[in-house]
Amino acid sequence: MRENTKVIEKLAFAILGLATLIIIAPVGIILFIVLWHGLPGLSFEFIFSMPREGMRAGGIFPAIVGTLVLTVGTAAFSIPVGILAAIYLNEYAGRNWLTRLFEISIINLAGIPSIVYGLFGLGLFVTFFGFGASILAGSLTLSIMTLPVIITATREALSAVPMAFREVSFSLGASRWQTVSRVVLPNAIPGILTGTILGLSRAAGETAPILFTVAAFYLPRLPQSPFDQAMALPYHIYVLSTQVPNVSLRTQYSTVLVLVLMVFILNIAAAYIRAKFRRRKTW
Amino acid sequence: MVKITVAGLSIWYDEQTAIKNLSLQVSEKEILGIIGPSNSGKTSFLRTLNRLNELTSNCKTEGEIQLDGKSIFKEIDLLSLRKLVGIVFALPLPLPLSIYDNIAYGPRLRGEKNKSKLDGIVEKSLKASYLFDEVKDRLNTSAFNLSGGQQQRLCISRTLANEPEIILYDEPCSGLDPISTAKVEEAMRDLKKNYTQILVTNNTKQAARVADRTAFFLMGELVEIGDTTKMFTSPSDKRTDDYIAGRFG
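Structure tokens for the assembled complex are given below, as produced in the milestone run.
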């Protein structure tokens, strides 16, 4: 019997370890390949200059700026709406059929394929509202895709603040908003920030939602206004690898590396914030 | 002088009755002890006095409670009521803030921003629960670094900073050692000068030590209420006698 337990223990250890390895391996391999092929082409000039010769030479500056602008635009729309909606659902709304309907909608919103968001954005923002293919339309489309992530992360962060703190606050005569703003939110902010940044980093790397709503095929200048089209890194990678003949492999890999690094920086920032606040947490 | 009048109060959680048709009066500046086994409705009653029970969505109440002759349901604004009727919970529950900010929480809710005024409130409230000397050098450190007994006295100070007229205690010493308990009880006796206090306790001896009058609750009903000394020496109801003697509960 004891021998048996030991064997099963070893087997469990091996299987669980293998599963973990399977998760880590693709990340490691991707990073290695991208760095191996992309690093040599990475230079100041590549990052900060305009593309030339039909994107076969020069840099990718407008695509980097485009992705940054789209991420900021997405943040500007989705963070306030998402956080406020989550506060309403978690702290104000009662448990009834209407809130359950909201919850089901949010879950389903998270499961919609990104190309559907792209077509939705094309129909609503580009055509119906007449924004045209523009940074505004692209940011709004990405925002709608990011909202469920932000709402879910925010609600989780709010729920993690113990009920007892709310009760104490109410017992001292605080209103609901005073309780939310003075006790609940300050303790939920690390979680909210982490979830929000992860949502935005996903938006930064998306191709399908920007395909019809903002992305320019080749626009060797910086965007001038929110109604301007813009190049963006994910779409630029797609274009370089499938639409333009004779682009050097090095240019393709370097572009991929820049996007991966941008997303990584966001993710590391999220992890840093989480770790920092966890140490400070006193309860 | 009668401070609180409870008339025909019933409390339910869904279909389950917690308090059945309760009527009693609390005099100004007395300590009323409430004893009784678990599930006798003591805490539900206490939480109704400042309407905290309304945070529990399936809780329903009927009947009337008056504070200085005014209905707490109709005539006193909810937020003012909770300022007037402070509560100290069973477990010490500091907010995740510094000692100072915990105590200044209530006054700040009502817009007090004057630093020297807040300093004064904090010092006075901490002195009233005999905590000031133990924490005066670290007012800006987290309240979670205090011991359990200190945290509970901090919670009493926090309630006092609100300048309430009534203080409710929901088994305030259930998690404390005898020395900390003695300190909390000392603070309660001292507060009699200015406050009406209601103490729910599972510890009958504690009621005997600090309460002027004691009420015995059983299964949501008030069995007996009267002078603590009389209740503990010659209770008029057999069930009270049994409970105090430890024959059940």
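Chain A has eleven helices and two strands. The beta strands of chain A are 51-52, 57-58. Further analysis is deferred to the final report.
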